[in-house]
Amino acid sequence: MMAQDQHTAVAPGPAAGPARETGGEGDAGAAHEPPRAGGATARPRRPRGPLHRHRRWLVPLAAVLLLAQMAFAMVTAAARQTPTIDEPVYVGTAAVYLHQHSLAYNPEHPPLGKLLIAAGVAVADPRFDPSFHGDQGRLGRHLLYESGNDPWRLMLWARLPVVAVTLLFGLVVFAFAREPAGRLGALTALALYTFSPDLIAHGSLATLDVPAAGFVLTSAWLLWRARRRPRWYVPLAGAALGAALATKMNALPAVAVLLPLAVLSVWTGRRPRGRAARLRALAAGAGWAAVTAAVAVAVVWAAYLVVDPRLRWTPAQPVPAVHGLRGALVALMPFPEAYRDGMRVQFGFENYPWQGFLFGHVYTGARWYYLPAALLVKTPLGMLVLWGAGAAFLLAVRRLRPAAPYLLLPPAVLLAAAMHSSRDFGTRYALFLPMFLAVVAAAVPAALPAVRRTRWVLAVAAALVAFVAVSSLRTYPYYLPYSNEAFGGPARTHLWLHDSNVDWGQDLGRLAERLRTRYPRERVWLVYKGSGVPSYYGIRAADPRTVPPRRVRGLLVVSDSSVAKATGRLAALIASSRAVDEVGHSITIYRR
Question: How many CB atoms lie within 10 A of CB 344?
Fold first, then answer.
């Protein structure tokens, strides 16, 4: 007979307490055995052995070990990588927040994520030039390379707060998965989270993608918990949603799904019967949704007020005019003027004809299927299987089904919005997927009581998790250019994708070391895509595109994103050269 998805009823008695929900892998305590026929009592149980007595420590120990290996991977990457393209802008803006309390720079992103980075910048205490005037790109380079600071030390401290919150979001993943899926499901979810190459790669950078996605996940988890205690958890969910909105504006589509989830949580907690009760529950849910929205708006305002209590707003760069429906929506936003102007800047970016690269083809504009295709390349194969199986079990198993709206709707809405963007720059725009779907994958071990051949399913799930771990560990320390085995691994990612999927300027320091140790005193010609300054790291090179091809002799060093989109003179130079080396799977060295 197939197992049923219902909890066993317990007969009431003088000492009976309220029934407790349990996870799918046996969190419940041992039930009392019924008396045997004829009045004989059951045989006494064996004493519990040392392994059983200490089992309660195994799950926390495993969780600590998983988070520790993720921390080691992220801190190692943070210490060894040179600044990526976006990081100097955020670090420079964070320094302006600390020293000048000005909102003038980088308005296209709200301040909360940069305030997080500023915590690390404050510890590094770099020299700051208050007389600097220039755009936000030059601001970061000036702080890192022209003000007497050590960019290695400054970047490490700027990245460490993002490393810390990435680990904290791992605890959210564990807690979220444990409630519907039990301890084994929670460990499965945490393992997928901590071994995700994308999360390790971007969690080790002073950027905004991981914090924004993690705050959305936290809001969804708190709304799940609000089904029982809305007074406690709905305001906290609103604060987490506000933190997401105050970090990156691409979190705005989450509002359309998280506010209805607040209504659903109140409705589920009340379980109304009858029309009048349903109307009261619906009104209460709408009220709590309004509380969620109000708290979120308050957090956004608070983030701007922390930077400048007077909210002075004079943008350092022109703000494009936005008309039509978009302009009307921006004008209605209940946020500071700096936020609304940042939204106008984002819409201006959407009108720009960006170049993309997918599966060996360069194109202008955007392709709606870019993100799903890039995720197919950048996600470990075992993780893809567990995501799909987890979603299927989450919808099929009755006791897991209540969690489905909280785990499937937010990433679906965010992915749909991201797929309509004009910027095909990388899977970093979809980092909410490995977070939410790690929790979804917890449904696989949690559904074991409802499926046949339990041991076989458990063995396959464990093998898939191990496959994910091995695939992730093998790419160490080059997490940014990771691709799975079906696409040839990190060494071949540049054949399929570009930009932050592969080459974001992170390996300039490694290139300097390689040239110094293997190619001393050789003539170097460099085409570098990044925000670092090659001369600071000891690289003496010239741009091969500025001289006749016949003069380009020696080593031709090209960032892989530039190789992918090479045209004209650069394409001819690469075609007439021989590849002899590579650095970090992101830079290719040719000999001419």
Answer: 19
